[in-house]
Amino acid sequence: MSIQLKTFHFKFSPIFIEHLERFAKIHQYDDRHTFKEAWTTWTKTDSISKIIEEEIADLTKDGFDGNILEKMFKSARYYYRKKPETKDVIAKKKKYEGSSRSFLEQVDAHISHYVHTHSVSSGETIKSTASPAEAYDDFCKTHEIVGMDEAKQKKTYKNRYYLFSKKTQPNNSPM
């Protein structure tokens, strides 16, 4: 039996990201009007418009139902334009601090229980109605973790939720 979880995070293909990063870095210091004009021109370029069409088709097939061009624009304008070069990231990277095994076990048990109690059966598949945010809010109400930064706790929880969703999806091998 498999549980189908709704996808909340959609990723662009590596090929499209490469083009998007290049565009964003070229126009990194443009004001918003100039950036928007350059974006409009760039998206109408023959080679780029074909890549965009393929990306839209892929994301739509994967279940994305929002405005994909807007998602692309916002990614270029607010993320890739400001993304530091890789050598800058290496210099500023903090030392990784892992979570305790007991915390991870609590999180995994909670996610499994929460998803199973917030699922609807339809034929041979079971669809979860739980979002990661709702599950995390419930976790916070029922568990008190001492000695851990709240932002780290939230990120860890949502990462574990993502791993759980990938592990339970049909046609996916467990991680």
Overall 3D shape:
globular
Determine the structural class based on helices, strands and strand pairing: mainly alpha
Widest sheet: strand ordering: 1-3-2
Oligomer type: single chain
Features:
mainly alpha, 2 domains, 62% helix, 175 residues
Walkthrough of the structure:
This protein is mainly alpha-helical and 175 residues long. The protein has two domains: 14-92, no CATH class; 94-168. Helix content is 62%, strand content 6%. It has eight helices and three strands; from the N terminus they run E-H-H-H-H-H-H-E-E-H-H. The chain has helices at 14-26, 32-43, 46-61, 68-80, 86-92, 101-117, 132-142, 150-168, and strands at 3-4, 119-122, 125-128. A three-stranded mixed beta sheet has the order 1-3-2. The protein is globular and about 50 Å long. The mean pLDDT is 83.
Brief overview:
The chain is mainly α and 175 residues long. Helices cover 62% and strands 6% of the residues.
